[in-house]
Amino acid sequence: MTNIHIRFRHLQCFLAIAQHRTVGAAASALAITQPALSKTLGELEDDLDARLFERTRKGMLLTRAGEIFLEHAAASVASLRSGIESIKNSGVGVTVGILPTVAERLMPRATMMFKQRLPEIPVRIVALEHAPLLNMLRLGELDFVVGRLANPESMIGLTFEQLYVEPLVIAVYSNHALTNMKRFRVPLILDYPCVVPHHNTIIGQEVERFLQSHGIAKLRNYVEATTSVAFARRYVAEANAVWFVARGIVETDLSQKVMSALPVNTEAMTGPVGITSRTGRPVQRQALELIAAIRETVAAMNHRAI
After folding, report:
1. Cross-strand partners of 261
2. Residues near 79 by Cβ (< 8 Å), separated by ≥ 6?
3. Domains of the chain, CATH where assigned
């Protein structure tokens, strides 16, 4: 152990390769040459006496040793960056990743509450898909992420606090023919285009099980769109489509009767919504204040729903 001389550049190079999967892309991201990157990786593997990557047609894939090292390397870099930011005091403010299900109501209301209490503290909102948000969280670029629970394999090194459970609805615009059916049955959606969550997400798999329970083995005409809300909203309007969507995303549309939820029990399609943070890493003070505002907002929303 005393002969190991791992430097920050070793961790940077390792994490860049793990993220980008190719030496070329990782070198470009770090603004160094490929030979320099390969040399640095070689030094790290020599120090650890272990191969961290396998070269395959799909790119550089982590070995078992690499997977183990990834969790600790990401945590170390995040901790170091957090310390540097604290010393420089340039990290004042909160940077939070959000997913579409909380972008419509929860986060605007919680952010308003936070800014009423701490108007001088900036809040930076980052809206991306689950995978890049969780990568940014591991690297310390985000304080926390708010949204649906990710797949188990994506939660290594992270912890999840559930705030509430949210159902999906099957939504259409209010002038859709399905809203005029005397007796709606789920198989009727096969006559229309559908927008569904990506099949490799937890909620996407729940949609598949729901459809199968209604005798639909596979949709004939569908588009997968989980985080592309603007696209999905426009496509549903233009294509007269049926949208399997988290209720929180279309809550305003439903309350204003711009959209309608088709009359079918969708309790089988629910997912936990909450706060994802790094395991074993304390959340900075301003971020804790925003988390408190989020919890209070959820409690107020639940109270109004009773």
Report:
1. 171
2. 140, 281
3. 8-87 (1.10.10.10), 94-153+276-305 (3.40.190.10), 165-271 (3.40.190.290)
Per-residue pLDDT tens digits for 127-149: 988 888 998 999 889 999 999 99
One-letter amino acid of 62 = L
Question: 226 forms bridges with which residues in the sheet?
Answer: none
| pLDDT tens digits along 158-210 | 999 999 999 899 999 999 999 988 899 999 999 999 999 988 888 888 999 99
* Closest alpha carbon to 19 in 5, 39, 35, 37: 37
Tokens of 305: 């729903």
Other C-beta atoms lying within 10 Å of the C-beta of residue 174? 13
The answer to whether 47 and 4 have CB atoms below 8 angstroms apart is yes
> Which residues have a Cβ under 8 Å from the Cβ of 256 and sit 6 or more positions away?
none
Alpha carbon distance 113, 186 (integer Å): 40
Q: Does the pLDDT value for residue 104 go beyond 90?
A: no
